Amino acid sequence: MKNSRPFMNRMYFIDKHLRTRQYPNCKTLAQEYQVSEKTIQRDITYMREQLDAPIAYDNVRHGYYYTDVTFYLPMIAFTDQDTLSFIINQRILSQYQDTPIYNDIKHVIDKIMQFIPETNELGERANFLSFQTAPTAPVEYHKFELLQQAAHDERQVKLRYYAPSSDQETERIVNPYGIHQYYGAWYLIGYCLLRKDYRFFALNRILSVEVTETEFYKPDDFNIEKIISDSFHFIRDGQTQHVALKFSAYQARWIRERQWHRTQKITEFPDGSLRLDMDVQGLDDVKRWVLQYGDQVEVIAPVDLRETVINELRQMYQIYTGVMIIDDRVRE
Predict the structure, then answer these.
(1) Cβ density class 270-285: b for 16+ within 10 Å, e for less
(2) Is the pLDDT score of 325 beyond 60?
(3) The pTM is what?
């Protein structure tokens, strides 16, 4: 069985023996610690090359010693679980390789990981985890930095913004409160002076950013999580509505497994079907979510959502069949 005692513990063990001035060598250290001589040699090499430890070998006494006794190892102790956690964090971070935060966080993790050279075995243990990222929207790093700094300094920004829904560009003056990542895209959350309300701006749709000298004051009770908590997924439209959906017995098996919204209530029926009720904003998000379940779900409320889904289904029917449905009548 491989010795799984933490690498940092071995370094402190070697350090303690070097300070005794008894000139330990790889053989004596390996025997006492119950590892191979090659392991001890690798540890000493690492201490020399990575930590600048002033370790020398005395050919007369056939052992190692410190040439500078004022040297001390970094006071960081890692367990194997700590090391495994950092390896997993590296893999989680890799999902965000094309995002503005990647390099800064990777730099910090790499600094810590330099104190953990033996990661092969633990790396194999981490292989049981894998991650799949959502499709990402590219963001220009300098825009991200400008908005991040403006939010920190509480300075208004002037944005030129493209809205795909209207296919138009507009100029906005915004009080930037924070940046939020959702499903592969980054959004600026702020107060829009044009709309007189909170708005979410996709960073990849911001065509230009200008930080102004005008200061603003973010409300003390502002909380991004609170702002988006009423949204079904992420979209806010300023109007919270009661949504009721009935799922078939087949689809209900999966629906009851998850928490879809903090306000949700599930009513079970004898035939295995269920009704999902929730109070949310962003009916466009709800519509897209409902449509993926096809004939396994029925919109009960609100009426506007039900009619929107019906119209979508009519248009889909026409696309696939070439037949138009008008007022429930089929027209070739």
Answers:
(1) eeebbbbbbebbbbeb
(2) yes
(3) 0.66
